[in-house]
């Protein structure tokens, strides 16, 4: 307790700092260091192992983008699996659709319990909804044992590939996700960033494995002020649906959802990547 700044290191000589008004909570769970802070500009900030996961000010960007593009490509998504996502923000967005079932597998129950206490903005999704089945388990093991073709959509809302999130960036995990998806299945994953060396290395590794596993493996971008460089990516991998060619704007429009970041103009644009990133991806085998 008593920390004055949240400081996330992006490179040996680069870091991002937010002044802390109040250090609300600090605890080491079986899996990781968990902290909540009150800040002036970003509101409540939630970190795992000193990396920023969620802030009240910009979480809408991440949670819009991890969820809505998939539903605009397959508006008939009914069975969804979220791996990770313990803050509840991804589940909150998914539950806005007329889906039948949402399974969420989070490794660290403490993250969920503490977000319920300190971050109701995202954790309100844990309030009762009979479609929602929340499990505390290892995501890697869960998909290894899940039924073939069980899901229309799998969303991997993970940390960076260090610590408990590491297994969620392995070829074995992606292969099991492929197997658990049906023929129109989509996998969305937290895909790091191309800008700083460390994030870029992980981004390339993830993309390479996804490309080997799925016939369609695309990347899309969004602007995330509190993540390294502010330029962040999700992966869109699928068995048959292309995120741009199979985009269904009219059908998504008829859901009549109010969103704060995602919109139908932005959808195809998010898949159009800057030159330096295209160059990096070209070299990925
Ligand atoms: N998931 C973590 C995204 C990666 C953040 N990385 C970092 N700050 N270095 C966020 C979970 C939101 N539901």
Give a verbal description of the structure.
- The chain folds into two domains: 4-54, Roll (Spermidine Synthase, Chain: A, domain 2); 59-282, Rossmann fold, CATH 3.40.50.150.
- The protein is globular and about 50 Å long.
- The strands form three sheets. The protein has a seven-stranded mixed sheet with strand order 9-8-7-10-11-13-12, sandwiched between helices. The protein has a four-stranded antiparallel sheet with strand order 3-4-5-6, covered by helices on one side.
- The chain is α/β, with parallel strands linked by helices and 285 residues long.
- Helix 6 (171-180) packs across helix 7.
- It has helices spanning 59-73, 89-94, 109-118, 120-123, 139-145, 171-180, 197-213, 249-253, 266-270, 275-282, and strands at residues 5-11, 14-19, 22-28, 33-39, 43-48, 51-55, 79-84, 101-106, 132-136, 151-157, 181-190, 216-223, 231-238.
- Helices cover 31% and strands 31% of the residues.
- The protein has ten helices and 13 strands.
- The structure holds 1-{4-[(3-aminopropyl)amino]butyl}guanidine.
- 1-{4-[(3-aminopropyl)amino]butyl}guanidine is lined by residues 51-54, 62, 85, 87, 89-90, 157, 159-160, 190, 227-228.
- 1-{4-[(3-aminopropyl)amino]butyl}guanidine binds at residues 51-54, 62, 85, 87, 89-90, 157, 159-160, 190, 227-228.
């Amino acid at each position: 307790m008593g920390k004055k700044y949240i400081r996330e290191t992006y490179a040996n000589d680069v870091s991002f700092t937010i002044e802390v008004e109040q250090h609300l909570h600090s605890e080491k769970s079986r899996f990781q260091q968990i902290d909540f802070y009150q800040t002036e500009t970003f509101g409540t900030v939630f970190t795992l192992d000193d990396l920023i996961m969620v802030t009240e000010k910009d979480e809408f960007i991440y949670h819009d983008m991890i969820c809505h593009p998939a539903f605009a490509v397959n508006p008939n998504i009914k069975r969804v699996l979220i791996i990770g996502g313990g803050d509840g923000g991804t589940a909150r967005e998914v539950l806005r659709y007329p889906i039948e079932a949402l399974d969420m597998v989070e490794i660290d129950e403490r993250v969920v319990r503490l977000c319920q206490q300190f971050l109701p903005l995202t954790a309100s999704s844990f309030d009762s909804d009979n479609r929602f089945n929340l499990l505390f388990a290892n995501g890697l093991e869960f998909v290894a044992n899940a039924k073939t073709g069980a899901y229309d959509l799998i969303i991997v809302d993970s940390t960076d590939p260090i610590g408990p999130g590491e297994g969620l960036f392995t070829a074995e995990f992606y292969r099991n996700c492929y197997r658990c998806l049906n023929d129109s299945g989509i996998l969305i994953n937290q895909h790091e960033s191309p800008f700083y060396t460390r994030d870029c290395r992980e981004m390339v590794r993830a993309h390479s494995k996804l490309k080997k596993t799925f016939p369609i493996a695309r990347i899309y971008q969004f602007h995330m002020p509190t993540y390294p460089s502010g330029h962040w990516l999700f992966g869109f991998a699928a068995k048959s649906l292309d995120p741009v060619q199979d985009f269904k704007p009219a059908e998504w429009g008829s859901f009549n959802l109010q969103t704060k970041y995602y919109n139908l103009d932005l959808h195809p644009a998010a898949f159009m990547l800057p030159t330096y990133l295209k160059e990096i991806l070209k070299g990925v085998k």
